[in-house]
Write a structure and sequence with these properties.
The chain is mostly helical and 183 residues long. The chain has seven helices and two strands; from the N terminus they run ααααββααα. It is 46% helix and 7% strand. A two-stranded antiparallel sheet has the order 1-2.
């Protein structure tokens, strides 16, 4: 991981937009940030969203914020090779100052919620690098998908884990592999 790898996020956005048939123009730019690399504060997603937003405005692409988040996700998944979900890109594209987002990832919708004025959010740099590539993220995600598929065999209404009630889960838990049940 070096600074040169960050160019993949910008290039990835351009690749995804061109694959979607958008005509892009080149630009000279400088990327500057104060987030520590690998700090887990969505720096790659925010760079993807910033790049897609730049192309959107500069080239008149007409993308809405959700489409911009999807472009960032495809860049991360298909070009950079990190199999993450859309949480970070969506939050970067849809977030608003002094607000939290209440998100529904099945419908890919959200609403802003006022962040209480008497509440403080503290972000600390623990100096412990975080990255999804090479982590157990893909394995955990596969366990969740396997669990939903197994539960759907007994409960046809289940498409994702969020549809499973505690009672339904308790009924099939003994039949699930330990790690799948844990997830």
């Amino acid at each position: 991981n070096g600074w040169h790898n960050w160019s993949l996020y910008v290039q990835g956005v351009a690749v995804v937009l061109r694959q979607a048939g958008h005509r892009l123009r080149g630009f000279d730019g400088v990327i500057h940030g104060t987030l520590p690399l690998g700090s887990g504060l969505s720096s790659s997603a925010s760079l993807e969203v910033a790049t897609a937003t730049l192309f959107n405005r500069m080239c008149g692409l007409g993308l809405d914020p959700v489409e911009i988040a999807k472009v960032g996700l495809r860049a991360e998944n298909d070009v950079v090779g990190v199999q993450c979900g859309i949480l970070d890109q969506y939050s970067s594209a849809m977030g608003r100052k002094h607000s939290a987002l209440l998100m529904d990832f099945r419908e890919l919708t959200s609403r802003t919620v006022d962040f209480p004025g008497d509440l403080c959010l503290v972000i600390c740099n623990t100096c412990v690098p975080r990255q999804l590539k090479g982590s157990a993220f893909d394995e955990r995600r596969a366990h969740c998908e396997e669990g939903a598929a197994r539960l759907a065999k007994t409960f046809p209404h289940v498409k994702t884990l969020r549809e499973v009630t505690l009672e339904e889960f308790a009924r099939v838990e003994p039949e699930l592999p330990d790690l799948v049940a844990k997830r």
